[in-house]
Queue: 2 jobs
Job 1
Amino acid sequence: MRIGILGGGQLARMLALAGYPLGFTFRCLDPAEDPCAADLIPHIRGNWDDPEALRTFVDGVDMVTFETENIPLQALDCLESWGVPFHPGREALQVTQDRLLEKTYLRDCGFQTAPFASVSSLDEARHAAASIHYPVILKTRRFGYDGKGQKVARNSTELEAGFNALQGQDLLLEGYVSFEAEGSLIAVRDKKGHIQFYPLIHNEHRKGILYRSEPWIAAGTLERSAREAMKTLMEKMGYVGTMTLEFFSSHGRLIANELAPRVHNSGHWTIDAAVTCQFENHLRAITGLPLGSVASQAKYCMLNVIGQMPPRSEVLKIAAARLHDYHKAPAPGRKLGHITLVSDDQQEIEQGWQDMLAFYQP
Amino acid sequence: MRIGILGGGQLARMLALAGYPLGFTFRCLDPAEDPCAADLIPHIRGNWDDPEALRTFVDGVDMVTFETENIPLQALDCLESWGVPFHPGREALQVTQDRLLEKTYLRDCGFQTAPFASVSSLDEARHAAASIHYPVILKTRRFGYDGKGQKVARNSTELEAGFNALQGQDLLLEGYVSFEAEGSLIAVRDKKGHIQFYPLIHNEHRKGILYRSEPWIAAGTLERSAREAMKTLMEKMGYVGTMTLEFFSSHGRLIANELAPRVHNSGHWTIDAAVTCQFENHLRAITGLPLGSVASQAKYCMLNVIGQMPPRSEVLKIAAARLHDYHKAPAPGRKLGHITLVSDDQQEIEQGWQDMLAFYQP
């Protein structure tokens, strides 16, 4: 079975690494000249909304999936008209491409969210901010990630500046959630409707980019309610594949923030420390295979490598370190790889972390 | 760093799967039209002793390794003349391509071996057999694997038949070792001379092909003496990379049988159950990186898939099963993949084995 992946970045790369042992082959469509997945899967260069490129891409492909939610819906129109199956489905893309739809969907499925309102003028923004209370965040409804397309406003002046910076795009105004911690919940649902949940992850961001993920300690009630709402959501969506919810913990309550209809950076630890990683389970789900266990096999902590790779030999001297180099050109703010520290012994993980900071400060 | 692999079979495939996360890229040279490694690494089609094909293959490659010991030494001549580094070295290929040299080398390094003699005529064979005692095995000195190029003789008549079948080739006559068990020892040595040993493996063959590998129980003395001799051998050879010794256990003693200067089928369990697999450690060794831990993380048992793949969905229903499909065309006697059963609980492995036999009898 050949699986087409829309997108050729590190997620496509890791999908392929997980999928080759299952006997699958792959192909990706990506506008970049040399995306990092092209090291190991054939790459068609083209835009996702270019019917000709899509046509070449799907020729001989049995099904399609994607590594980013920023796939134009026109691409799905083409796939549908040609009878090429794809997972996750259209609704997952529609909802996650639009922050207003997404927040509404989350709320309707039982998640708590920050207060939010759609705004199309500065006046509307001012009224919404007054009712929600400052500080607020102005966000573009579409195509924002890693903190892009967002402006925090603590007062009316900042709101106006933010609105001017983002105007011309559909906007959403949200109440600012003061939170103790950020986390994510990764779930996978197969074609028969079975759902598995990876353990809750605690995430630390720096400059809007995920920096460090590790197990969420003492998650009991929070985790149960999150799983319940996630199940509702995935069933409502008829979702098939791996899906990620990013959330805040605020005064002990879970505030749902964003959905990713795909494998997720905060789940990269599963490659080294879960029985079945998020990538393999995504592929199992979309190809109609039974899901594998999502249990953790050890303690872990994942560090993103951003901007510049640390020396490979230094990383590999650390017994607990597992290196994942995406083979990308260095650039400020670019995710180049990740390192997972894995051990049965939390002390060894802490030590590995300290050892790493000696030669690498991201 | 781009690593060239001579050979494009499943071992090259698994080397690439282990090496991509380290940031390496690959290329293989293989005479087959579509070897299974070509799914994920660029493939140059050509013979290993064809200087033109080799020239194309090494262009832009930083170093070369191999997945088979059947690489003609002329290929190494070319690499040397062009200044392309390769590991393991020439001596490893020379010794393992010739059963007489190999047995002599093993003995000289402190291993016990079956009694053996070089024979070039039927008369010599008869004399050697009389001194070694029947049953004996006639073997071609060169290019035999998986039981090919071997004839067992229980008496003079069978010896003559065997000699006639194999004649024209350089031959070796060996005493037949009556053994309780077969096993292997996989070691890896880095450029600084550090050596790591994977735990001893118990191997079961059927029709001369490896069928099942699992941990060797109660290996104490046997393992210590094997490691000692293996260390002597690797140091004498200046070996860099993963190396495998296949042996018999006969009356509790280890009888060294064959060396493979490469990753080995009996070490495939390391992908799923060792901290660092034999493939990654081979790559770490030959690129001058520090070795990773070879400790087992769980109990395991590996089954080769021969001739025909079992249904993927049935295999993946078994919680302990990890599937490795090499994406090869089915053919009688062909290794198509392997399945590793992994669990902390030996009972779950046994149960997985039983479940598997219900739909798959290799």
Job 2
Amino acid sequence: MSDLLAEASALDARDPLGPHLDAFVEAPGVSAYLDGNSLGRPLKELPERLAEFVRGDWGTRLIRSWDEQWMDLPTELGDRIGRVAIGAAAGQTVVADSTTVLLYKLMRAAVHAPGGRNEIVIEEGNFPTDRFVAEGIAAERGLTLRWIDPDPVTGVQVGDIEAAVSERTALVVLSHVDYRSGALADMKAITDAVHNTGALVLWDLCHSVGVVPVELDACGVDLAVGCTYKYLNGGPGSPAFAYVNARHQGVLRQPIQGWMGAGDVFAMASAYAPSGGIRQFISGTPPVLGMLAMQGMLDLIEDATITAVRAKSKTLTDLVVRAVDEELAPLGVRTLSPRDAGRRGGHVTIGHPDFAEVTKTLWAEGVIPDFRFPDGIRLGLSPLSTSHTEALSGALAVRDALR
Amino acid sequence: MSDLLAEASALDARDPLGPHLDAFVEAPGVSAYLDGNSLGRPLKELPERLAEFVRGDWGTRLIRSWDEQWMDLPTELGDRIGRVAIGAAAGQTVVADSTTVLLYKLMRAAVHAPGGRNEIVIEEGNFPTDRFVAEGIAAERGLTLRWIDPDPVTGVQVGDIEAAVSERTALVVLSHVDYRSGALADMKAITDAVHNTGALVLWDLCHSVGVVPVELDACGVDLAVGCTYKYLNGGPGSPAFAYVNARHQGVLRQPIQGWMGAGDVFAMASAYAPSGGIRQFISGTPPVLGMLAMQGMLDLIEDATITAVRAKSKTLTDLVVRAVDEELAPLGVRTLSPRDAGRRGGHVTIGHPDFAEVTKTLWAEGVIPDFRFPDGIRLGLSPLSTSHTEALSGALAVRDALR
């Protein structure tokens, strides 16, 4: 126990990202925030950034800002996410809509592909919205959903995919990091396995972007969607991003044809002609206000480097796994995440029948993890805003509440 | 000429909404902002509202705010818009997504209606995104688009609709206020004419909400979509709203099935079961940050009353029409809006072959109207943020730039 505290202090003392902890808004009454994997914390600089935006770009430049900067913001910000966090060369990433709406657009685009393939392979362990979208599309397009259900703790393996895909597969929909266990999938090997059958793959990056380095181009990924309000700290409901590999642009067509995705936005043309590049995946007016907060976090990640963020993520989750082994397991708590940090994303999930009640107690006390039905607690550790000491104190607070 | 100036001053002197002019952020260098119909101006209170949100609801309450308030925000804010601006009883309006995405959801829901009706009647003069969405849906669902093309200045009439709708019509898509001319449609008479054939009607309220009183319930409207960044001043790309009349809820199904529209959001269920009410029209995580700015404007409209806003809108547009007649028509400027204020929304459109060049000159000088291809200038007059003197000076600046 005192070993754990000493270890946490030592890790913090030599943490190269330590100075960034002070960049986030303080939360009076909160002693441990362990839900950065659901909603990242705001930066202290944000109120001033927003005030300048309201008075300047919006309030003074007014409608002129569309010409001056906002029209290109969805693709510029997409390129930036591509460069800083997901290994995507420019022109393939765009910020727009919610994760759900982008999943719909990309899945619909993918299953419109020629070739008569009529199956979507999808994991039971995908986040509900991914499954719900696929279920709706399968019903409307007359496709079959082929479910796979790997062990959530070990996560999806190449063998699971090889056993499920075939010449009937149009699309495979997978999560890079499992939202339940944090299991990290082997993106390159699985993408290759999908491509061997001629199908496309769509990766959900919601639980990896900003905490695990992603290499979409290097892995030859076809399509990806990710969330910006978790480890990119974009704020509640900030818009998601979509990645469409350059080789598919101009080939795959998304169904929600809107003026902002047209080739000439202000021509007021009588028929829709899509923009040639990634811009075609935009539909309506981009949510500019919702794109401001994540910019400060992208600055931080670029400065710290995603490699250093990942390194700290591993020491954070390793420390928590050790604390669970030593202090919580004796109380009947199960570890529901991979034990190897290399196979894990940024959160650690633990289980106990009393966790619904325990979470209520913890929230009231200012210790804030995430409860997931039926009996899981996720300890989400956002490396730039969380110290090892805070992570450990959160884990130990779970123990104390259980007692 | 001096008559016009005196008239403007007199109107301002007795303007009951005059005191609200000071509520908006000042724009140094801008002498006349005439584009509130594209992007409404921010309120002075907004930076503080945003800062409090960042430090409090987001930064301190953190994930707990979803339970405490954000989960219900889309329907609460929808109800508020319903009450203040569009004549909709509670439980029928929701804020979510962009106008384009909501148009897609509602049109898809409407053409899924049973009965074998296979035509969408739609106006050539609808805003491009409405037409593009309908075009895409018609192609994917095997429907026919039946175009109507009323004179844009007089706008769509009951007779135009009666001539186009039939027992083959599934849906009629119309704009309440024409984005080009400002022509105001007779919502009640047209809705009745559509219903006489058994079809549904979807009204686009983008150019009327917040400036013209709308009575959706009283008119028996089926579906409506509206924008919040024009006369509701929600900021660039703020989320739109959708209205689905209670009689259609639980019957019409929208296609983008997401976790936030499910009956039990956190059950993480294996199959999608939609929420019973208007909530089913939500798909992904609501854009909370984008819902903040419009709240201050709704306060203002509620305080001023939409009736008083409409009354000032008429005196503003009447004054501009008179200025055009007296000062701009002699230079060859055409009036492209209805001359009767009762048949007009909040903007006045004028035409001249040189207006593309004129708009560039005006923008550089801090007079900001809206140019629309090929040769129109729209003078958008947002009653709460625009004085009669400002409106007149903008119109006269167009004259000066033409000379």
